[in-house]
């Protein structure tokens, strides 16, 4: 394992999985499908969900500072407790104002989770294995998100009585795990690194938003797209398993490449593969190319994740790292927030081909920004080495 204290990191990963399972399950499946029982309109549900994610996005930078001052563990406990309050009291709420307030509270506390945990993981990683440690942590939370969005939806349709107990149990477990980490603080940097400025962080923000804006275009259009091309979840099962296996194989290889050479060595091919997958989806009859598209997307995402996390680890300043990580994640979250709006507009006028073509263009633009940044960095290094500098 690429971590110095694997037992600690595994608890942090478990906490991420549980919280993301509940968050995606509650907001994507449970609340929309049971809103009628709570006398909630579609607009009110959107307000509750949007309020949570907006609070999460806008508070990441400021809460990152609090993470360093108060300790990661205390905020992890606060996040788990806020999530438990939302799940537990939504059923008994007499007004939509209560779940709205609790969802915003959960967003304000949840916002500390990812920046805080990623900072701890980056500091705990073995020297030379930072990209691998961070990418494994990021991808380990993916099953929780998928299981929440899809699994809770299946429960709601086939065994609705079990959905609420599943969410409540998972959030109680998350609180117990968080309590075991209550005294956790961000460890000091154990390795000497070049001093970084906030200007270096600012250079990452444009590609950060583009990289999440591209997949965000299809966030609310995934099911309509499957219906339009006549594909079911059964059709996706085998190519999906192949894609998952390929991603699992690519992550350690791309992470090792990013650690031993330069993060962009994995990042740029990853973005190119993602753009290629979106291009193939934009062409006619994408349902005939699922065994190519899904593995290509999975391999690209794995390489991109390793390269991007490695780049963040090398670029973000060691001082106030949680705040810096939170700032980058704010822009990433904004990409996911804006994506559905733009995607819906493009879908209306250009259909699925236009939406995927735009996504491919966004990935290619992010690739170009990273390539230009690398070229400038090399030019600056070369100029500094010239006589007289």
TrEMBL record:
<keyword id="KW-0813">Transport</keyword>
<feature type="transmembrane region" description="Helical">
    <location>
        <begin position="12"/>
        <end position="32"/>
    </location>
</feature>
<feature type="transmembrane region" description="Helical">
    <location>
        <begin position="323"/>
        <end position="347"/>
    </location>
</feature>
<feature type="transmembrane region" description="Helical">
    <location>
        <begin position="133"/>
        <end position="156"/>
    </location>
</feature>
<feature type="transmembrane region" description="Helical">
    <location>
        <begin position="204"/>
        <end position="224"/>
    </location>
</feature>
<keyword id="KW-1133">Transmembrane helix</keyword>
<feature type="transmembrane region" description="Helical">
    <location>
        <begin position="290"/>
        <end position="311"/>
    </location>
</feature>
<feature type="transmembrane region" description="Helical">
    <location>
        <begin position="353"/>
        <end position="372"/>
    </location>
</feature>
<dbReference type="GO" id="GO:0005886">
    <property type="term" value="C:plasma membrane"/>
</dbReference>
<feature type="transmembrane region" description="Helical">
    <location>
        <begin position="75"/>
        <end position="98"/>
    </location>
</feature>
<protein>
    <submittedName>
        <fullName>Major facilitator superfamily MFS_1</fullName>
    </submittedName>
</protein>
<dbReference type="GO" id="GO:0022857">
    <property type="term" value="F:transmembrane transporter activity"/>
</dbReference>
<feature type="transmembrane region" description="Helical">
    <location>
        <begin position="38"/>
        <end position="55"/>
    </location>
</feature>
<keyword id="KW-1003">Cell membrane</keyword>
<feature type="transmembrane region" description="Helical">
    <location>
        <begin position="236"/>
        <end position="254"/>
    </location>
</feature>
<feature type="transmembrane region" description="Helical">
    <location>
        <begin position="104"/>
        <end position="121"/>
    </location>
</feature>
<dbReference type="Pfam" id="PF07690">
    <property type="entry name" value="MFS_1"/>
</dbReference>
<keyword id="KW-0472">Membrane</keyword>
<dbReference type="InterPro" id="IPR011701">
    <property type="entry name" value="MFS"/>
</dbReference>
<feature type="transmembrane region" description="Helical">
    <location>
        <begin position="162"/>
        <end position="184"/>
    </location>
</feature>
<keyword id="KW-0812">Transmembrane</keyword>
<dbReference type="InterPro" id="IPR020846">
    <property type="entry name" value="MFS_dom"/>
</dbReference>
<dbReference type="InterPro" id="IPR050171">
    <property type="entry name" value="MFS_Transporters"/>
</dbReference>
<feature type="domain" description="Major facilitator superfamily (MFS) profile">
    <location>
        <begin position="8"/>
        <end position="378"/>
    </location>
</feature>
<dbReference type="InterPro" id="IPR036259">
    <property type="entry name" value="MFS_trans_sf"/>
</dbReference>
<feature type="transmembrane region" description="Helical">
    <location>
        <begin position="266"/>
        <end position="284"/>
    </location>
</feature>
């Amino acid at each position: 394992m690429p971590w110095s204290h694997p037992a600690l990191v595994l608890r942090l990963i478990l906490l991420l999985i549980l919280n993301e399972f509940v968050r995606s399950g509650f907001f994507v499946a449970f609340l929309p499908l049971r809103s009628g029982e709570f006398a909630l309109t579609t607009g009110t549900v959107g307000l509750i969900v949007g309020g949570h994610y907006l609070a999460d996005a806008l508070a990441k930078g400021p809460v990152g500072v609090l993470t360093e001052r108060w300790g990661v563990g205390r905020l992890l406990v606060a996040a788990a407790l806020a999530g438990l309050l939302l799940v537990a009291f939504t059923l008994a709420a007499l007004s939509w104002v209560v779940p709205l307030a609790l969802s915003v509270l959960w967003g304000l506390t949840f916002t500390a989770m990812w920046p805080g945990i990623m900072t701890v993981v980056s500091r705990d990683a073995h020297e030379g294995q930072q990209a691998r440690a961070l990418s494994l942590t990021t991808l380990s939370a993916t099953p929780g998100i998928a299981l929440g969005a899809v699994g809770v939806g299946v429960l709601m349709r086939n065994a609705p009585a079990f959905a609420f107990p599943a969410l409540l149990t998972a959030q109680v477990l998350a609180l117990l795990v968080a309590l075991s980490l209550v005294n956790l603080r961000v460890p000091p940097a154990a390795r000497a690194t070049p001093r970084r400025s906030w200007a270096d962080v600012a250079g990452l923000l444009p590609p950060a938003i583009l990289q999440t804006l591209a997949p965000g275009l299809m966030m609310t259009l995934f099911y309509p797209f499957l219906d339009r091309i006549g594909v079911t979840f059964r059709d996706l099962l085998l190519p999906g398993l192949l894609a998952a296996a390929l991603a699992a194989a690519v992550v350690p290889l791309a992470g090792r490449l990013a650690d031993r050479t330069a993060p962009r060595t994995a990042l740029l091919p990853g973005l190119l593969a993602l753009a290629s997958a979106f291009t193939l989806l934009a062409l006619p009859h994408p349902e005939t190319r699922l065994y190519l598209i899904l593995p290509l997307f999975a391999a690209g995402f794995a390489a991109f994740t390793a390269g991007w996390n490695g780049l963040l680890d090398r670029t973000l300043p060691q001082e106030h790292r949680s705040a810096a990580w939170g700032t980058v994640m704010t822009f990433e979250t904004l990409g996911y927030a804006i994506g559905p709006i733009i995607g819906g507009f493009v879908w209306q006028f250009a259909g699925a081909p236009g939406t995927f073509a735009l996504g491919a263009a966004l990935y290619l633009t992010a690739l170009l920004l990273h390539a230009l940044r690398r070229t400038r960095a090399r030019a600056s290094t070369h100029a500094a080495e010239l006589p007289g500098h």
